[in-house]
Amino acid sequence: MGADHSKMNFATPPDSTRRSLKADWSARDLAVLWHPCTQMRDHADLDGARVPLTPIARGEGAWLVDHDGGRYLDAVSSWWTNLFGHANPRIAAAVKDQLDKLEHVIFAGFSHEPGILLAEELLRIAPKGLARVFYGDNGSSAIEIALKMSFHYWRNLGRAGKTRFVALSGGYHGETLGALTVTDVPLYRATYAPLLGDPIFVASPDCYEREPGEDWQAHALRRLADMRAALERHAHEVSAVIVEPLVQCAGGMRMYHAAWLAGLRRLCDEFEVHLIADEIAVGFGRTGTLFACEQASITPDFLCLSKGITGGFLPFSAVLTNASVYDAFYAEYAAGKAFLHSHSYTGNALACRAALETLAIFRDEPVIERNRALAQRLHERLAPLADHTHVAEVRQTGMIAAVELVRDKATRTPFASAERRGLRAYRHALAQGVLLRPLGDVVYFMPPYVITPDEIDFMVEVAARSIDAAVAS
Ligand SMILES: *Cc1c(COP(=O)(O)O)cnc(C)c1O
């Protein structure tokens, strides 16, 4: 890229002479809707610090376009769901074709071609040893399914005392009550704690917590001792260990070395507990391999998939498990061993078709290789930020990169959370045409795989300016 790159501006400023359709839709929205993960008062025009609500008219590739023509680069893949761009023509065509054939059918006693083909394809590409696919309709429901199936497996084997789960500090698995039970992000969990179960939280191998001078691997292996100690003490009452392989996403894009995962697999075998790999966010190429588990050469007992599985088109999830789990439920009806978990939209045909087409893109195109080059570009452009006086760490795993903002670099003292520095970065970047959505004070990048090198440069330049704006007193 030449020196003139800094003058590039992908964002089109809205035409101020026209009446703002964006403002109209925003006002109508705020009169009737209640948005997720949002203090709605932030959108009110009360104290000059209004957070804009941005209705989107259409999407194309990595870009979102509002009703006034304003453009936003989707640096977070719309909550990590979008892989191949908004309104991706290939996935859209497949869904349109499916629409005229079958939209949905009850999935108990009935089935359909996209659902069958998708299960075959998932088992073909997943880590070896997985043999059965159970569908859900969102990420949290996949977690509920895996937790219930694991518990029920042990019960069917006569080991009903295995009722607890081991989860990691800083882990996130969704916000329905079962998924929230094994989540350790206070923002989501603290308020509802009285409603939740009682998991055993073990220290995460999170590389941000390593000792000065220690490398990711040494730190990860040291943390494995904590897991061993927990299992030595609790394995008799533990059904499964649940983890996000390689990157704890919602907990702040905290990353760790694959050696820990390999060690965890050995511990789970040794102590007879299941391993649930929640690849809802990291699956489908995010970490540099199709599944993150591949980097540790392990196969979990349950693999939970969602988000990118439909390319970001439709809500859907799948839980893959092995034959020995399946066999523990397979019995005479009267034995009462069947797995009971049913969502009305289980196996939705449109979602299955979108997922099939998404997987076909992985088959037909060198996605993982292309991502390697894009990830390298992102790495190079982000590197200078490591020297910023308010940046404690720049870290990256494949197509996920994060910049950890702190008040004091030397002591890694965070900003007071009430200062909402990350939100300042969000507002600044949005005004410059980039959708960032920092997790607290962690500014991260998880762009669609169709992002171009030039767009990466633009994204990082806007982020750098937004970080400067956010940390200025
Ligand atoms: C998003 C996410 C979930 C929950 O998925 P939803 O579809 O939002 O319910 C679970 N686990 C991980 C790791 C996630 O990132």
Could you characterize the architecture of this molecule?
It is built from 14 helices and 16 strands. It has 473 residues and is an alpha/beta fold. It has two domains: 21-80 and 367-471, Aspartate Aminotransferase, domain 1; 90-364, Type I PLP-dependent aspartate aminotransferase-like (Major domain) (Aspartate Aminotransferase, domain 2, 3-Layer(aba) Sandwich), CATH 3.40.640. It has a seven-stranded mixed beta sheet with strand order 4-12-11-10-7-5-6, sandwiched between helices. It has a four-stranded mixed beta sheet with strand order 1-2-3-15. The protein has a three-stranded antiparallel beta sheet with strand order 13-14-16. Helix 3 packs antiparallel against helix 11, helix 4 packs across helix 11 (349-364) and helix 12 (367-382) packs parallel to helix 14 (453-471). The chain is globular and about 70 Å long. The two termini are 33 Å apart. The site of pyridoxal-5'-phosphate has 15 residues, from helix 5.
